[in-house]
Amino acid sequence: IDECCVGTSCHEQSTCANSLGNFTCICNSGYSGNGTFCEDIDECEEEECHSSATCVNNPGSFVCNCNPGFIGDGVISCSDNCQVPYLFFSTSSGTFSYNTEESTSSPNMFNSRVNALLSFDDMNKRLYFYTANDEITSYNLNGSDLSTITIQNVEFFTVDGRNNLLYYHQRLQDRIFVYNITSTQSTQVGALSSVTGTKDMEVKNGYLYIAKASYPTIIRYNPRNESITPFNSTTGSAQSLSVDEYDNVIYWANYDGTSHRVMRTLLNGETVDLNITYSGEIDLTSDVFNFYVLVKADNRIDQYLKTSIEKQKNVTFNGPIEDLIIAYDEDECCVGTFCHMNATCSNYLGGLNCSCNDGFTGNGMDCEATNCSDLSCGQNQECVQVNNTFACVCKDGYEEPDCRPTTNCSDPSCGQNEECVLVNNTFTCVCKDGYEEPDCLRPMTMCNIPVVVYYGPSAINYQVTINNVTTSGSLGSGGAKDMNYDRLSRRLFYYVSGNFYSVEQDGSDLRDIGAVGNVDRFTVDGRNNIIYYINDLTDIISKFNMTNSAETDLGIRAKDIDMDSVNNYLVIVRTDSGSNIERYNVETEVVDAIKAGGDFPQDVSVDADNGVVYWVNVIGGSTFKVKSTSYAGVTIDLNITYTERIEIAQDEVYLYVLVVSNETIYKYRKNTWEQMGSIVVPSGTSGVEVAFDIDECCVGTSCHEQSTCANSLGNFTCICSSGYSGNGTFCEDINECEEEECHSSATCVNNPGSFVCNCNPGFIGDGVISCSDNCQVPYLFFSTSSGTFSYNTEESTSSPNMFNSRANALLSFDGMNKRLYFYTANDEITSYNLNGSDLSTITIQNVEFFTVDGRNNLLYYHQRLQDRIFVYNITSTQSTQVGALSSVTGTKDMEVKNGYLYIAKASDPTIIRYNPRNESITPFNSTTGSAQSLSVDEYDNVIYWVNYDGTSHRVMRTLLNGETVDLNITYSGEIDLTSDVLNIYVLVKAENRIDQYLKTSLEKQKNVTYNGAIEDLIIGYGEFHLKENKSIFKFGFLFLYQVAKKWSSHW
């Protein structure tokens, strides 16, 4: 008799070992006793923690926690937190420093670099400054070792001192690049090429943490394996972040569309709103005990205590503050990692002095003794004599620093798709993301969508996530006693009221399989059309042939069974054998043991692809532990324990645990066994199963190339794209010209998936509502720090004239109503007619650029903080986000023409067109690079745009059929552009110059220069009216001529 199988008097914290005619109870690790009684060993009475740590005993284990004010692993190291946090902030007067630990401290000028972006390399204790001349300067906190590098178009940056890298956000391309400080090479981070809307970054512990304007708002990038981990699902837009390496949390600023809120996110994704709210834009940083909030509008930095979230004090300045960072001046003597153990350390600013103690000689870094009695070696050290001197060296099996145990990732030999990680103080090889066992050679099945099915006597329900949308539902009426999924037929089988049934995953096609009595649990062998079940009266396994309804007993008693349809095994939990878990080969009928006896398995779930059995061990009837056993016989305790009955199921990535009494299914990630979420289930739910829906859109369908595939549970749909009609498997272009009405002076041109109304030769307009004759005078408007100027492009002797005094305005022209719009730094958008009449002003915050749709009285704008496109209704004064464009990020410019919104983007596709009528989006080209500016030519139906290829800025021309031509007009610095009927105008920002090119020949005609920076440019049209054979020019700004003369000194 296997007493361990039958049940013994062994303690719940012991292991039963069966032997011939006997058995032995052995207390588990961390416990002592005779096996029938086991008590916890207090390791804190025997183990030694660090001298600055406290030992905490836990059941079966212990932990060493560094004391408050110290950091480290608690065993080998607990470093005194000998860091003096200094707050650095940049202003228009220079960069200032502030000692946060001195209550009487006031800011001091640190250097004269104005409005610098800041970063601190805490590994090498270097401070970095990025200034407007594209220079990044760094040096030690004592001012030594100055170094300067040049990187263009940096919006913000962070330094990885460990790997000598500098990550920066490239403003023009809206992408993250990395600069290797050693090799001086700069490259885009390929794994982050799809990340847009980046607002801030920070490197901590080798990871790059990123704040984004869209979901997920906080992500972490691991450069070692190029994986990306999302951290939270909070709605809003992250604007700034600071990673707290001491408490393993992320503090960040969340803009919810109205206010800026300080949030705290744990590394498990749990996010808390700290109820610290500001109406205006904020930035933040943190040290060990505090976080600091820069309130930009108030030129103030508020200091909050992390533990209580109470405001402690603030630092104010008499001008705008650009950036802030915490840097640590290290008291090297406090850290104690530099001088010899037999030397005395004297600290001074930026350095230290080491002098050997009495009885020792040397330079302080190395002090020698005359005999071993003068030395006090550590626990893992021994005293040896070398060349007539005595020194403490590490014992065999230990290594510097601090004579730690010799363990590193060079021990395991990891495979091609594996990586070495530290698990429970042991280095081991695990599969990289995207690969799975065995041997990490097989990519995960990406086209399988797991469907979690939970059931009970009265109901069968499911939950599935498709395209990031989670839905729940019922699989018909009635319930089930037990369920099983057959991966070959992809059908769900269930047993209720003495009968087997099968059904599709969406509840359709219900089939009556056959009547069988007294079924407790069952599993399906779809390959051989067999159902194996356990008789609830005899506990004996029988098989039911679904073809002829024949039944056969296997003569094997079991508690639970599951089918491995990949390897053709029936996995059995035994109740009458010396083995706990066995495999039954359904072809050869040979049985072999997977796990020996000693436990009490209850529920089993087989991972057939990886040859692993997950099972529930019942201890004393009141403790339920999840374990796994491989086909090789290796059993692992997964540290998942409950005090109530549980049922389990699993998919490729997760293990699902149903706690029956809690009415909850908990989800655990297999590679880390971290709990990732839960599903609340109805009362009476008694079991859980996982089915797999094929994502037909992923596998490949018969959908037409001009249609979109939409996956659903158990099915898919082909939907013809906008501008096309058909059943989805066949789509043909709709000739909109047969249905749509153009202007009477326009011609309709049908394009694939769209149409356009072109005003006839000699007319201009949108082609739908208006086509005016071509008596238009194109005027070039451009804004500067002195105001906005106008320039008659048709007069060869023309010079710019002052139009108004609005400085550095963003410009837009409403061609429908002939109104000019100006957006200024005070968040006001002013518009009026070209003769200066009918002035109107509205207020919209955080506009980065905008364009006006005069036909529909709308104003589209890019919201700087949220990196999204909004629309303002000029009539109703309501502002809303454009829902159809919610996924569009990295927007660089926009323009409305003929009722369409054309958008320039930093990533592929670089040019898209949005149709507000049906909310469709049309991509226009796949040119590599980054679109920076665009101008839509409504006369020739082309788009002129600026492409930044990482080196130069090139003027491109794209037809509405997507054909793109490089015009070979190239500039090294940033440019902007606009166009009229005959010409293209290129603003060369670095040279304060606007170049004019003829569209037909692309030859440069002339240029307009200014003696200061030009912010923006736009073409506006004035009209000539012919009356009595005289040209009467009606352009109201002519009356400003006398005002303009006084400004002529600017040119």
Describe what you observe in this structure:
One of its GO terms (molecular function) is calcium ion binding. Pfam families: EGF_3, EGF_CA. With 1051 residues, the protein is mostly beta strands. Among the domains are: 150-330, TolB, C-terminal domain (Neuraminidase); 336-366, no CATH class; 416-445, no CATH class; 483-693, Neuraminidase, CATH 2.120.10; 697-733, Laminin, CATH 2.10.25.10; 776-791 and 809-1022, TolB, C-terminal domain (Neuraminidase, 6 Propeller), CATH 2.120.10. The chain has a five-stranded antiparallel β-sheet with strand order 79-78-77-100-101. A four-stranded antiparallel β-sheet has the order 11-10-9-32. A four-stranded antiparallel β-sheet has the order 12-13-14-15, with no helix packed on it. β58 and β59 form a beta hairpin. The radius of gyration is 36 Å and the shape is flat. 36% of the residues are buried.
Can you give me a brief rundown of this structure?
With 1051 residues, the protein is mainly beta. It is built from 4 helices and 101 strands.
Main sheet attributes: strand count, strand direction, barrel closure: 5 strands, antiparallel
Distance between the termini: 106 Å
Low-confidence stretches: 1024-1051
The computed structural class is mainly beta
For this structure, what is the CATH homologous superfamily of the domain at 776-791 and 809-1022?
TolB, C-terminal domain
Question: Going across the major beta sheet, what is the strand order?
Answer: 79-78-77-100-101
Give the radius of gyration.
36 Å
CATH class of the domain at 776-791 and 809-1022: Mainly Beta
In CATH, the architecture of the domain at 776-791 and 809-1022 is 6 Propeller
**Helix share of residues?**
under 10%
CATH topology of the domain at 776-791 and 809-1022: Neuraminidase
Number of helices: 4
Average pLDDT, all residues: 86
Pfam families: EGF_3, EGF_CA
Keywords: Disulfide bond, EGF-like domain, Repeat, Signal
Disulfide bonds: 394-403, 431-440
GO molecular function: calcium ion binding
